[in-house]
Design brief:
Blueprint (H helix, E strand, L loop, with lengths): L1 H27 L9 H4 L2 H6 L2 H7 L7 E5 L7 H8 L4 E6 L2 H11 L10 E5 L12 E7 L8 H11 E12 L8 H10 L3 E7 L3 E7 L5
Parallel strand pairs: 1-2, 1-4, 2-3, 4-5
Antiparallel strand pairs: 5-7, 6-7
Length: 216
């Protein structure tokens, strides 16, 4: 029992030190997770801790919707969003890193995913989204917002491409080195002109949902 406790404390200590180190580095250098981490971001272990079906439901995604995922990475949540929106819906998976998009493209070529036809891969910058105004019913991000150098500008771009009354869903995950408190996420959204709709989840794993305009 003592050996197990010692090992657990060492793992916890390493995790805390890693969090501190990454946060210090990011104060001086803004960077996204490298494409080489795609396998970890899309791992079964991560999905057990942050289940895609639960997150997609909390994001307000429903059948027939037009959806934008900002910072899709290797597609840990994209597949679930596509299946939820169905054949009448569309999911635009946007990432700034071509190698991440290549990993998602490879994932879509697997036999179990070949029936999915409603995902469009887009290489682009969250600060200047390559879409027309009022294009989407839902825009969602998962552990991405805090990685963006200019969060306010990116949020205003997300607001621009949302339809009137559209939903912005921001999900965060405590193990992520950029993890912010719920209050921080709410403040950023409201400063960008969004209206708070709902907060779901817990300290470990939460989603803040905003509306592009105040509900009537």
């Amino acid at each position: 029992m003592r050996v197990f406790t010692t090992i657990l404390l060492k793992i916890l200590g390493f995790f805390v030190l890693l969090q501190i180190a990454v946060r210090i580095i990011k104060r001086f250098y803004a960077f996204s997770p490298p494409a080489s981490m795609g396998f970890l971001l899309d791992s079964d272990f991560r999905k057990r801790l942050q289940p895609p079906d639960k997150l997609i439901k909390r994001s307000g995604i429903k059948e027939g919707m037009h959806i934008l995922e900002v910072g899709c990475g290797s597609g840990a949540f994209t597949i679930c969003a596509a299946r939820t929106s169905g054949i009448k819906g569309e999911v635009y998976a946007l990432d700034i890193q071509p190698r991440m998009l290549m990993q998602l493209k490879k994932k879509l070529s697997r036999p179990e995913n070949r029936d999915i036809k409603n995902i469009k891969l887009v290489e682009g910058d969250a600060h200047k989204l390559p879409f027309n105004d009022n294009s989407f019913d839902v825009v969602y991000t998962v552990t991405v917002l805090q990685e963006l150098p200019d969060q306010n500008r990116a949020l205003k771009e997300m607001k621009r491409v949302l339809k009137p009354g559209g939903v912005l869903a921001v999900s965060e995950f405590l193990p992520d080195p950029d993890y912010p408190l719920k209050s921080t996420t709410i403040r950023l959204g409201e400063e960008a002109g969004f209206f708070l709709d709902k907060v779901e989840g817990n300290l470990w794993n939460y989603t803040v949902r905003f509306k592009a305009q105040k509900s009537m």
